[in-house]
Amino acid sequence: MAAAGWRAGSEASIPLAVYAEGCAFRANAVRALAEAGRPWHVVYTSQSPRGIGIAIEQGQSVGVTARRLVPAGWQVLDEAQGFPPIEPARLMFWRSTQCEALALETLVDILSRQLGRSAWLNESGGATLTTSHQSQQ
Asked: Which PANTHER family does the UniProt entry name for this protein (predicted)?
């Protein structure tokens, strides 16, 4: 995503305003740019969505988030502007095989049902919910 009117040259390094390393959106965007042969560099990192938004509003960088969260008046950078598609982020729960908390089971069940009912998510492939038990060592 970028502020209205933002443009990059076809050979220009893409200036990114992103969350810190470990963020699924950042990792997926960087991977997609690298695989497409598009140079990129991080110009701003923040833990705050608003901080990243301010950096993007200045028109000097671009960011990545779910399409449904792109603010009104901003543009979605896609293949029409020469940007590669980005793999959707995944929601995963990892827990010990010894964890049998009813509250956790209830939360996972609610999220599974809600995400499963989302027509938008089902059509866009916008999310995947994975549950797993991780064995303790």
From this structure: HTH-TYPE TRANSCRIPTIONAL REGULATOR LRHA-RELATED (PTHR30579:SF7), TRANSCRIPTIONAL REGULATOR (PTHR30579)
